[in-house]
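Good morning C.,

I know you're traveling, so I'll keep this short. The sequence:
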Amino acid sequence: MNIKIERTWKKNLGAEFEKPYFKSLSSFVRNEYLSKKIFPHPKNVFRAFEECPFDDVRVVILGQDPYHGPSQAHGLCFSVPKEIKIPPSLVNIYKEIESDLGVKMPLSGDLSSWARQGVLLLNATLTVQAHNAGSHQKKGWEEFTDNAIQALSDKRENLVFLLWGAYAQNKSSLIDRSKHLILEAPHPSPLSAHRGFLGCKHFSKTNEFLLARNLGEVSWEIN
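The tokens, ready to paste straight into the viewer:
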């Protein structure tokens, strides 16, 4: 199966595309795009991988599934195109960055600059029906993205995994804690951010870990 995905990721995940679950997933997703409104645009389904090649990953932020409102999803978890209103969870992420690092709240919700610095912004499910959250869960995407996390854990060292909320934290079993740093907090959603996401200082802790290993810090400022 000829899936268009960034070269280094294809090297590490190419075997997945020939497995029965992925063939079934591909058929399902193709039919959904033909018959319903699906997000993101097909060209952005694998954008998290395109923006952040396998060997460049330094930090992994895990989301659940794409935004399901018009024009919001563009292939990077928590991120929206710069002309779109910043979603509430991302507002709380920005609040924490401002509190933690003194970086002023940006006007744009486009996190592409993080991805280009080695922050993999990965949703567990890569597609969704419009206005129907979770509609493409348990169709095969989770097996694919779990294998991406597993490959990073097995083949890389000194990565930082930011696991926000119970769904993301359940992925910790895929990660070798002896090789990588896992930081956990409640989800930044307005429903839970006050329970410990705000004040978690994950952004400064990430940079401290990276700098201690001469890996260079991430600039969390959005220009």
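Safe travels,
E.
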